[in-house]
Amino acid sequence: MAREHQHDITWSAADNVGVDSVRIDYSLHGADGPWLALAAQLANSGSFAWTVPIGASDSVLVRVSALDAALNVAADESDSLFEIYSLISVAAAARPGFALAPPAPNPTRGGTQLRFRLPEAGEVTVDIVGIKGEIVWRQRLGRLPAGDHAVAWGGTATGGRPAPAGLYFARVTSRFGTRSAKLLLMP
């Protein structure tokens, strides 16, 4: 769920006849607009609490226009384009999903820790795969509960012999998909 954010827009306007009112507009698409009204009939100097729109744009401008009693208009825009980012709530971002953390340590001269997370209980297999796609080491972990888990790989191939130095991929497979991470085994 996105949340609203406020930003204060401040101005001071004057001319030789006298400023009658100030209008504030913004554009999400640069100087060519379209321009959307924020406020009108404001005093010649002051501040306006702008509730920044939800959504993303990299071409935002704010324009303050001053009008005098003779209906002359002078305007000033933001010095440059700025960005608005979509915000997501912490609760939505914190939902656990299926993930594999980078192996640690990496590179390694022996063993490394493979940490992964399951969103729900499920069967899990962990492989160390060579660059040609061959499975060097496999650990079938069976059914694990939801949450964080870790498996240690000791730098050996299936059967216990040392794996040759080189580039490998740590791969975790479950009903939620497959996650892989590069792993460098040093001599």
At a glance:
The protein has one helix at residues 90-93, and strands at residues 5-12, 19-27, 36-42, 45-52, 57-68, 73-77, 82-84, 99-100, 112-118, 122-130, 135-144, 147-153, 166-174, 177-185.
Structure report:
With 187 residues, this protein is an all-beta fold. It folds into 2 domains: 5-90, Immunoglobulin-like (Sandwich); 96-185, Immunoglobulin-like (Sandwich), CATH 2.60.40. The chain is built from 1 helix and 14 strands, in the order βββββββαβββββββ. The strands form 4 sheets. Strands 2, 3, 5, 6 and 7 form a 5-stranded antiparallel beta sheet that branches. The chain has a 4-stranded antiparallel beta sheet with strand order 11-10-13-14, with no helix packed on it. Strand 10 (122-130) and strand 11 (135-144) form a beta hairpin. The chain is rod-shaped and about 90 Å long.
- Number of beta strands: 14
CATH class of the largest domain: Mainly Beta
Strand % is over 45%
Q: Which architecture name of the largest domain does CATH use?
A: Sandwich
Count of discrete alpha- or pi-helical segments spanning 4 or more residues: 1
Q: Main beta sheet: strand number and arrangement?
A: 5 strands, antiparallel
Secondary structure class reads: mainly beta
Overall form: rod-shaped
- Per CATH, what is the topology of the largest domain? Immunoglobulin-like
Tally of individual domains? 2
Low-confidence stretches: 87-95
> Fraction of residues in helices?
under 10%
Distance between the termini: 49 Å
| Oligomeric state | single chain
* Strand/helix succession: EEEEEEEHEEEEEEE
Radius of gyration, in angstroms, nearest whole number: 29 Å
